[in-house]
Structures are given as C-alpha cells and as structure tokens.
Design goal:
Strand order of the largest sheet: 1-2-4-3
Strand content: 15-25%
Structural class: alpha+beta
Distance between the termini: 30 Å
Largest sheet: 4 strands, antiparallel
Length: 265
C-alpha cells in the first residue's frame, strides 16, 4: 500500500485512490461517497469548506481512460470515512488519523527557519543530526527500491505460485544448514548476493527483481516502523543452488554425515 497521507501544495492530504485501497473498496464507490458529502455540504451552504478541503483532479486510469479522483484534507477524510464502521475500518481510520498527525508535525519542522550555530558544539550537533538524517534517507530509498523491484516479477504462473507460498526468515533457512542466521547472512554477503544498510539486509540490484524476497514493515510504535526481509520458496532454492555450486555447502538432509532424518521445514 502506498503512503496513507502525503504533502500536496504545502498541505497534508490523502486522496480517494488511497482511501479505496486502504478500506478495500472500489474507487468509484469512494468517489460516490465523497460526492454525497459534497452535495450535503453545498445544501448546508458550506461552499467554502468544500473549496478548502476537497480537490477534484483528473487522472488516467488503468484502461488509459480519464477518470476523476479527489484530494482530501483530514477534515474531508473524516466526513467521508464517518460511515465506514466495521472493526477493520475503525483500525484503518485510526491509522489515517495518526499519519495525518505525524505528517503535520513533519510539515511544521520543515517550515521552521534554519538556525545558524553560534558555538562549535551547536555546529557539531547539527552536523551529526544531518548525517543521521542522510543515512536514514539512504536506507529508506534502498528499502523502497527493493520493495518496488520485488513487486515487478509476475512473468509466469509458476513464479506467482512460488511467491504465494509461505515466507521464511533467514534464521529458518539457516537451520537447514545447521548454521546461525548471522553466518548465513555473512556468506550471502561474501557471495555478492546482499549487503547491509543500517541493520537491514538488502539484495543487490541484480537480484531484487527475481522474486527471491518479500519485505514487510512492522510497526514498533505509532511513529516508528522497521522493514524485515523474508525469503520466498524460490529464494530458498536460489540460496540452495548458490551455496552448493559456489561453496559446496549442502543442507543437513543431503549430507552423508548422520543427518539423513532431518526434515525440511
């Protein structure tokens, strides 16, 4: 799912496409719900509210035909989503509200004028803060690149079936070889398969669109989340072929050293 809210013309907004995806509704039904609210607001002579909080845009749909969508401020979103009352919808509304709040705070930070340091200590602190922001931005961009390329491989039915089977953490795959996740990650790094950015392992670009991994973002709290990379069954086979052909390392079940009864997970 794309970002729930975003900046548009120096305001924090969402749009009808995002709302439709988030609440599992058809876009045309969300547009209908929006236009019902707009009609009621006009009947109540709240023309200025409509002008300030709803924005009509035209875009090209998947069928290459022009279609309309609406930009929504938090106030407009609240009115439209008021009728979405299932437990799942309530959870999603809370997520939207939290995102509006977080993005408003981010916008306020951006509006604050840059303060020139007056002491060496202040200058050093600003430098450290900027370096940390740059590192975080690089990590986020690298993670986004991996997620985008992971979503691309849909060439065959075979690939699709593989990607829909259970996902595995690197620690579970490592157990197939009687080693730790740290050791397996290190081997895959040495073989040029992946690299570490911050505390997250990411595939090198030439492997990102092969369907070997899927990334999931886990919320730590309302403002912080962390991405984890999981391996598909196709990726598991890739690791098997890579370790066998390049390092001669076999899983325990294929070794002639007393592990014949070990079962695949």
């Amino acid at each position: 799912m794309n970002q729930l809210v975003f900046f548009e013309n120096n305001r924090v907004v969402t749009d009808s496409l995002t709302v439709a995806e988030a609440f599992g509704k058809e876009h045309k039904h969300v547009v209908r719900d929006i236009e019902v609210q707009i009609s009621k607001l006009h009947e109540a002579k709240e023309h200025e509210f409509v002008k300030s909080n709803f924005g009509l845009e035209i875009f090209k749909a998947k069928n290459n035909k022009e279609a309309k969508k609406y930009l929504l401020t938090e106030e407009a979103f609240t009115l439209v989503a008021m009728s979405y009352t299932t437990p799942e919808a309530m959870k999603m509304k809370v997520r939207f509200i939290e995102e509006f709040k977080r993005m408003r705070a981010e916008l306020e930070k951006q509006k604050q004028p840059f303060k020139l340091p007056t002491t060496y200590k202040e200058a050093l602190l600003q430098l450290v803060e900027q370096v940390e922001k740059n590192e975080q931005l690089q990590l986020q961009n690298a993670q986004k690149d991996q997620i985008i390329k992971e979503l691309q491989p849909k060439a065959t039915y075979y690939d699709l079936v593989l990607q829909n089977k259970s996902l595995l953490s690197i620690s579970k795959i490592a157990k197939d070889y009687g080693m730790s996740a740290r050791k397996l990650n290190k081997l895959l790094h040495e073989l040029g398969v992946q690299y570490k950015q911050g505390d997250c392992w990411l595939l090198y670009a030439k492997y990102q669109d092969k369907g070997y991994t899927q990334s999931k973002t886990h919320a730590i709290d309302s403002e912080i989340s962390k991405m984890h990379t999981y391996w598909t069954q196709k990726g598991r086979l890739f690791i098997y072929e890579t370790l066998k052909n390049k390092l001669g390392i076999l899983p325990l079940i294929e070794r002639d050293d007393g592990y014949a009864n070990v079962q695949h997970r």
